[in-house]
Amino acid sequence: MNQPCGCQPATPCGLGNTFTLVLVLFILLAIIGCICIW
Q: What's the predicted TM-score (pTM) here?
């Protein structure tokens, strides 16, 4: 996949990937947390 990294040109490739990874992990933790609460 030869796509440019990130949606914003000013965002470095590594920073964008890290932010996406953290965001996905946070969402997964939130979903697991909701399941555990219920």
A: 0.45
pLDDT at 16 > cutoff 80: no
* 1 domain residue, yes or no: no
Query: How many domains does the structure of the chain reveal?
Result: 1
Q: Is the pLDDT of residue 10 over 60?
A: no
CA gap 7, 28 in Å, rounded: 22
Query: Comparing C-alpha atoms, which of 5, 22, 23 is closest to residue 14?
Result: 5
Q: Which of 21, 25, 20 is nearest to 7 (CA)?
A: 20
